[in-house]
């Protein structure tokens, strides 16, 4: 694995470093990011797309006031569920911020569980045409009324190449692909794999890991804590807006089913835990494909990360 002083020869001329902290949900990315930010006396860019929205706090595990005070954070509740905010928007905003931060810092930390958002900043996005927002609105309506399965079937039919590699359990990915297919008449996969821009900084990945049983136990306990903190009330306040894209996510959709009388509260909470565990499994599958990640144990993350980075 590459360290800060042991980088790819093609990147040796780059003097600025983005340290990216990754790992499954609930593993402790926020804590390690803060510890690293304090060590390097720098700032943190959040790459958790669920934490972007002001209206979503408990169910997205937004860092506490104490954590936010411990190190400067960016992209935490900086927008609203009522305004569209895409991965392309994040890429543009994050790169602009990095330009500013790197004028005074040699190192910046980025942390979060949204792999596509991290990839956008580090590598750049594939170029897709702009499509009318009505396509996504229609797809979200179909998701709300008929569920994910019919959309999965459609994507497998119109773009089997992408369906074979996509995270088909993630409604955001399925809807994003289908809106491109419907709007352009071309496959989503046909827009993938084009040359991407080079970044002016080098990137070092630190991944936090643990035994699967421990990861799942941490997730279960975090869901219980969220419910104790008032997640039910938070979700109830957002129920009228349940069709919005930002709310098509674990921790809210399950409670919306409870409010609609489809599920008991006990079952809804169990489903949040189950779906969160599935999400963690998908995150790990995504991350394991990245050979640049240096993995550290969650209970010794800072020491192992610094040993690698310095």
Structural commentary:
Its EC number is 2.5.1.75. The chain is an alpha/beta fold. The protein has 3 domains: 9-124 and 201-210 and 291-309, Rossmann fold (3-Layer(aba) Sandwich); 133-191, Histone, subunit A (Orthogonal Bundle); 215-279, Crystal structure of tRNA isopentenylpyrophosphate transferase (bh2366) domain (Helix Hairpins, Orthogonal Bundle), CATH 1.10.287. 48% of the residues lie in helices and 9% in strands. It has helices spanning 29-40, 65-70, 87-101, 115-123, 133-146, 149-158, 160-163, 171-184, 212-229, 231-238, 253-259, 265-288, 301-309, and strands spanning 17-22, 44-46, 73-74, 107-111, 202-209, 293-297. A 6-stranded parallel beta sheet has the order 3-2-4-1-5-6, sandwiched between helices. Helix 5 crosses helix 8 (171-184), helix 9 (212-229) packs across helix 12 and helix 11 (253-259) runs antiparallel to helix 12 (265-288). The two termini are 13 Å apart.
């Amino acid at each position: 694995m590459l360290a800060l002083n042991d980088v790819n020869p093609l990147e040796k001329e780059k003097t600025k470093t983005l340290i990216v902290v990754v790992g499954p949900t609930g593993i402790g990315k926020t804590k390690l990011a803060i510890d690293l930010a304090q060590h390097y006396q720098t700032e943190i860019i959040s790459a958790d797309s669920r934490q972007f929205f002001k209206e979503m706090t408990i169910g997205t595990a937004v860092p506490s006031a104490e954590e936010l005070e411990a190190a400067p954070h960016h992209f935490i509740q900086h927008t609203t569920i009522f305004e569209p905010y895409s991965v392309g928007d994040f890429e543009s905003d994050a790169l602009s911020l990095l330009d500013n931060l790197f004028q005074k810092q040699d190192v910046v930390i980025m942390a979060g569980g949204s792999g596509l958002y991290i990839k956008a900043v580090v590598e750049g996005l594939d170029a897709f045409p702009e499509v009318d927002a009505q396509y996504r609105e229609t797809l979200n309506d179909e998701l709300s009324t008929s569920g994910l399965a019919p959309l999965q079937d459609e994507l497998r039919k119109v773009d089997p190449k992408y369906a074979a590699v996509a995270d088909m359990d993630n409604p955001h990915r399925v809807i994003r692909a289908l809106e491109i297919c419907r709007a352009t008449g071309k496959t989503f996969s046909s827009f993938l794999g084009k040359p991407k821009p080079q970044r002016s900084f080098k990137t070092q990945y630190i991944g936090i890991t643990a035994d699967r049983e421990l990861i799942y136990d941490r997730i279960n306990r975090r869901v219980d804590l969220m419910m104790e903190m008032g997640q039910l009330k938070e979700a109830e306040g957002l129920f009228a807006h349940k069709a919005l894209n930002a709310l098509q996510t674990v921790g809210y959709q399950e409670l919306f089913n409870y409010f609609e009388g489809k599920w008991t509260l006990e079952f809804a909470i169990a489903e949040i835990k189950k779906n969160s565990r599935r999400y963690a499994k998908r995150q790990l599958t995504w991350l394991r494909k990245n050979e640049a990640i240096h993995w550290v144990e969650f209970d010794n993350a800072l020491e192992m990360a610094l040993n690698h980075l310095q």
